[in-house]
Specification:
SSo0622-like fold; 4-stranded antiparallel beta sheet; 5-stranded antiparallel beta sheet
Chain lengths: 178, 178
């Protein structure tokens, strides 16, 4: 599982370039980032993120076989989720934050916004819209069949690919600015 | 369907009070708001919101019978979604926007942020985290059975209730400030 995640991050050259371009600009530094992922999460109950456990996570499209392999051996409640890319950027001032917010929105990161302002920095969250969450079963029992799982996986892979395209646009835009 | 929605909005006294409290404050006016809802949406393909059509929407917990009644007569691809409350607020200046952002976060609206700044106003989006989206079938054919639908509905109702609790907290906080 750990191996898959590392592979995912390594493959995601686009995010690395985006982070590099931002950190090379004296107006910005990144404080956290995720390239977007598909994950299987086990929770004791709805929305109990504090006690959530990752059953599997992939930062790339997921194949049917590995997916069905992962949907084994869990307890509690199982959710399948696709999370869009997210980047937190500390900006020098409001002007530089608004400039980056504009660039992010233009590239399709429509849920972006300034999430806090301190005396010294303005903190921006760059986030997109490709998100889906599905509860799949409870107490170790899947409540949906293989055909439906295949359908879910197909749609979730599609959402992840779309968010990667947006990351590509952001990468292009930011690297052309430097 | 239309009737259900109006009933839902009418029931949502909390949101109305929040909107009223904000508009009574000279620092703020609201530009749009939604109390949170459960919706069945028909789309031609994944993420094609432009051509989406609401099959049903409810701003309150949904009963099993009305839900099963609604899951009939659709085409394309059917998604079930729970959308958390969202309020857009135009704020007088950065200070008043940051104050409201702090209040919103304290009440659990953790995805809130400043989404744009003009010469005259600072625009804040107040939004929470209770969100789930599930594709249920394609070409008019449901790919999940009744037991699974019941499970989905239960979880989605739970998420909606949780978001309403947060709206209650926000309502309490804002009305106590005025």
């Amino acid at each position: 599982m750990q191996r898959l995640e590392v592979e995912g991050i390594d493959e995601d050259e686009k995010l690395r370039r985006v982070v590099k371009a931002l950190n090379q600009n004296p107006n910005y530094f990144t404080t956290s980032s995720c390239a977007g992922r598909i994950a299987l999460i086990e929770v004791p109950g709805v929305g109990d993120k504090e006690h959530a456990r990752f059953v599997a996570k992939w930062h790339r499209r997921v194949g049917e076989e590995e997916f069905f392999d992962a949907v084994k051996g869990w307890r509690g409640e199982l959710w399948l989720t696709v999370q869009c890319p997210i980047i937190h950027v500390s900006c020098r001032d409001l002007g530089s934050a608004l400039h980056l917010l504009g660039v992010a929105k233009e590239c399709g990161f429509k849920r972006s916004g300034i999430i806090s302002v301190t005396e010294k920095r303005v903190n921006l969250e760059i986030v997109s819209t490709e998100r889906a969450d599905v509860p799949m079963g409870v107490d170790g029992v899947l409540l949906c069949d293989k055909e439906y799982l295949r359908f879910l996986l197909d749609r979730f892979n599609e959402l992840l690919s779309r968010s990667k395209e947006k990351m590509g646009k952001l990468c292009e835009k930011l690297t052309s600015e430097t």
